[in-house]
Amino acid sequence: MKKNILVVDDSALMRRILCDIINADSNFEVTETCRNGQEALDKLKEKTFDAVLLDVNMPVMDGIKLLEELQKEKIQTTIIMVSTLTTAEADVTIRAMELGATDFVTKPENVMDAKGRDFSDNLLTMLNAVLHSANYKRAFVTPKVEKTEKHQPSGSKGGGNIPAAKGTKLIALASSTGGPKALQSVIPYLPKNMDAPLVLVQHMPAGFTASMANRLNELSEVEVKEAQDGDVLKKGCVYVAPGGKHIRVVPGAAGHTIKLSDEPPISGLRPCADIMYQSLEECKFDSICCVVLTGMGSDGTKGITGLKKKHSNVFTISQNAETCVVYGMPKAIADSGASDEVVPLEDVAKTIIKNVGVK
Hints:
Layout: E1 3-8, H1 12-23, E2 28-34, H2 37-46, E3 51-55, H3 63-73, E4 79-84, H4 87-98, E5 103-107, H5 111-114, H6 117-131, E6 169-175, H7 179-182, E7 198-202, H8 208-219, E8 223-226, E9 237-240, E10 246-250, E11 257-261, H9 273-279, E12 287-292, H10 301-310, E13 314-319, H11 329-335, E14 341-343, H12 348-356
Parallel strand pairs: 1-2, 1-3, 3-4, 4-5, 6-7, 6-12, 7-9, 8-9, 12-13, 13-14
Antiparallel strand pairs: 10-11
Helix pairs in contact: 2-3, 4-8, 9-10
């Protein structure tokens, strides 16, 4: 049975293009279209859809206001934003995911690109990944994380208490589809005195990573920034790989630093988590905590399995199937046998701190 889709966009041409793309896939069918958020709200009060493709800027009621109304009315649905590559829309799109949107697809600026293969493939890949997940109907709800637990570093895989690792430490985190929303249940719950820096690869285009980093910084005790070439890693700081750049961690006289590059994408990904993890093989950390959150594909698995062969003290945390928007990347690392602890999203932050401790 085909998944029924609601398309919400103020452009008649874009509605037509989206409908043509979606209806060409045998898995989906656009059953309704709306010109603004108010029309969509009225429709969602009456009918249930498997997914809603939602524009950001619209007259009468924009995408953000619609999400706020859906939260207020307690109407749960799977929403994927369709957003253009502008700084203003990047900020709004990050806000949309705080309000329950699952993820986003970048909308081309011109009609020819909108009708092109890249946009069509990206849109259908996202829909297939999200709507074939067992959890997509729960994606509108953000897990409740207990702030009171975030400073407690005790606990272990076996249920007992272990001291956090000693010496120099690093946290290396990777996420993809559903990641921008999931990260808001992790990064704001890390204490500012955590005893390690954190390097983060989230699959996003350029511009969106800066907006995501800025928003996480506003919400968090730790400092969050989009990484710059040459940054010296500091404890209690999160370095987000810029969209469109690979990120490596390299040892140096002044400490470990960030190295960015424009090398070709790996399997269509730049940044690629495997590149980040592979770079850690040459680093001088006493212990490394790898974290893999929701996302399609298997990025990170090759890098982490290789790192574990070269480094004697690597601990890997992966998100469990029940809380992932898409159980792809965490499944791949778990299936490989390289995951040391599988936890729900709401437990990721405290599991990290259990392993790296606070200073």
